[in-house]
Design the sequence.
DNA sequence: CATTCACTATTACAGATGTAATCTTTGATA
DNA sequence: TATCAAAGATTACATCTGTAATAGTGAATG
């Protein structure tokens, strides 16, 4: 799988929220947030198909697009490469970055606690 | 400060380990690890100077290069942007992935606990 | 059935990036 | 002092990216 660019990632996010979707559905969602022209979004969709990250099936005149690459896999892969490349293999600086942004919500903390509990179970 | 590309980052890492260094010192360290031609490394150094991430002072015929952008700042900035761009501001999915791959280390968990403790302090 | 739309496919083009090669300058050497 | 060699500066060139515009095609409409 080829690398996915930043602009392409925004398109993937839309497809990850819901799939399949027509090009126009994707365009609409991105028009709000990003000011992108319809043609731009369609180019990005095409490139993603070329890269094997998105597939489509015909539905009459239009196509229905779906992600091939799934978000959890993408996030894991990118995180691992980011941690190696930028953080020299250490997760801690990333957590620190998170802390400084002060954007932890109660819900997140609960989730993190659960993760820790599970992890500690497995260590025994 | 402009973005630093992946190849440029490798040059920064060498300068972060030690500074100042001549172009040739940098070249030598990268020749081992990366197969880069001398000219390539010098181009990267130049681009980094152009981007304001590296400075130099003359030392006779050669230049001595030093990082302007420091590694901790770079790591923090990149981490925050990565958290937003790739993780949509949420840490849990990433950690879940790591846990699943048994890549979560005790050190990471300790850091995570601290993060949570700090958060809980702030809530009071 | 001919024409027009609405889609997709193809093409465009400038700036960034990877990866060097060539040009210019200047200190070192014969 | 004239020449050479090594540093940095400039130029090169294919890809990738961001951001569209234009061309082609088949389904819907008059």
Sequence:
């Amino acid at each position: 799988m080829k690398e996915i660019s930043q602009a392409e990632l925004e398109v993937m996010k839309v497809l990850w929220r819901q799939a399949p979707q027509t090009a126009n559905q994707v365009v609409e969602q991105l028009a709000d947030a990003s000011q992108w022209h319809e043609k731009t979004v369609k180019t990005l969709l095409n490139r993603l198909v070329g890269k094997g990250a998105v597939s489509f099936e015909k539905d009459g005149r239009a196509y229905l697009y779906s992600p091939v690459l799934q978000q959890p896999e993408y996030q894991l892969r990118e995180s691992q490469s980011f941690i190696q490349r930028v953080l020299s293999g250490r997760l801690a600086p990333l957590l620190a970055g998170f802390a400084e942004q002060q954007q932890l919500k109660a819900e997140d903390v609960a989730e993190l606690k659960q993760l820790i509990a599970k992890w500690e179970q497995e260590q025994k």
